[in-house]
Insulin-like growth factor-binding protein complex acid labile subunit (Papilio machaon), 341 residues
Amino acid sequence: MGARSRKLLLLLAACALAASEPLNKTAIKSDMATDTIFQYEDYDSAEDQEVLFSEDRPCPRDCICTVSQGYRIAKCNRLEVGTQKFGDDITDLVIENADPTFPINLDDFIFKKLGLHQIATIKIVNSTIGFVGPNAFHGLHELYAVNLSNNKLKTLHPETFANNKKLLLLTLSNNQLKFPEAGSHDYFLNASSVQELDVSYCNMKYITDSTFKNMPGLMYLNVAGNNLSDMDANTFKKLLDLEELDLSDNNIKSLPEDIFSENTELATLHIQRNPIDSVYGLQISDLLTLNAGQTNIKFIGPSMFNGMTYIANLNLSGNSIEKIHNQAFHKLVELNYLDLS
Ligand SMILES: *[C@@H]1O[C@H](CO)[C@@H](O)[C@H](O)[C@H]1NC(C)=O
Ligand SMILES: *[C@@H]1O[C@H](CO)[C@@H](O)[C@H](O)[C@H]1NC(C)=O
Ligand SMILES: *[C@@H]1O[C@H](CO)[C@@H](O)[C@H](O)[C@H]1NC(C)=O
Ligand SMILES: *[C@@H]1O[C@H](CO)[C@@H](O)[C@H](O)[C@H]1NC(C)=O
Ligand SMILES: *[C@@H]1O[C@H](CO)[C@@H](O)[C@H](O)[C@H]1NC(C)=O
Ligand SMILES: *[C@@H]1O[C@H](CO)[C@@H](O)[C@H](O)[C@H]1NC(C)=O
């Protein structure tokens, strides 16, 4: 593509941006999906923290306990049943960058045994977890968010979170986890309340139509960076509440046309950095945002987006696009933002 036509395309993009002022649906939907994540992050970044100390609510060895906006946070270097005893008012447990020569072993009932009966969030990141017992999180009825990213974790029993009925957010990214094999009917986790699951960079390789069948509440699913390739048309058909799906940084060459036919809530799809060359025929009735940057899309024909006519944000940047049909975006009456850089 010459410099001249590139300029023209950019102009086109700018026009599309200027011409449409109507309400910004993306902003509304995506805010909803990420709200809870940011709330969770706020706990340990708040500035008005005060150190907690009291006779009857002791802060255990190797921990610092603080209060912030009503949350009682224990930040620890390690966990050890027997020597540590937490006050049952602790709501948040944080372990970051723990010494890798002493792997953290999450034995059955460990959090209950430590006295963490009211715990709402557990964040153990950038450490080494030796193993997680199938009942490690048992009895934690207020548990709302768990972040176990980057811990060299290898396996999780499918029923690990089956009894945590309030669990909404689960982050397991950057662990070389075991997932059901191709062709198997096994499921990854039985966790019906979880709404947001991040299993990015987890060495997943295959995703079957059974992998997430016992997580019907999923609204946000991140499987980026897993070298996933071909997918069965039924892969996501049980996830009826799915709003955002991140498939970026995989090895996907094509997607079955009806793979999202049951996902009527799907508003945001990320497929950037996959060797996919077309989204022609893909049916996603309510899609608002499509990120298809750095793919192999070279030609944009007149009907490539006919199955996604409500797109408001379309990112096709970093593609070696050679030709765009003059009717390519004709049906996208809601198009607000177009990136062809
Ligand atoms: C729409 O909302 C997104 C997300 O908040 C924002 O980045 C973008 O600039 C908005 N677009 C317009 C045209 O207001
Ligand atoms: C989980 O922890 C990692 C590492 O600190 C952080 O980057 C990520 O944002 C956290 N995720 C959530 C959902 O809190
Ligand atoms: C994770 O640990 C490594 C060293 O082990 C450190 O360089 C890095 O900054 C840590 N990351 C976070 C998010 O704490
Ligand atoms: C999932 O866990 C629930 C307990 O919360 C249990 O009743 C149900 O049988 C489990 N489902 C499967 C398929 O194991
Ligand atoms: C990704 O999967 C392909 C086969 O689908 C394989 O040839 C390749 O080595 C894998 N890459 C990585 C980084 O695992
Ligand atoms: C489009 O995607 C590219 C990466 O693929 C990113 O750098 C760019 O910021 C995205 N544009 C918008 C507006 O989000």
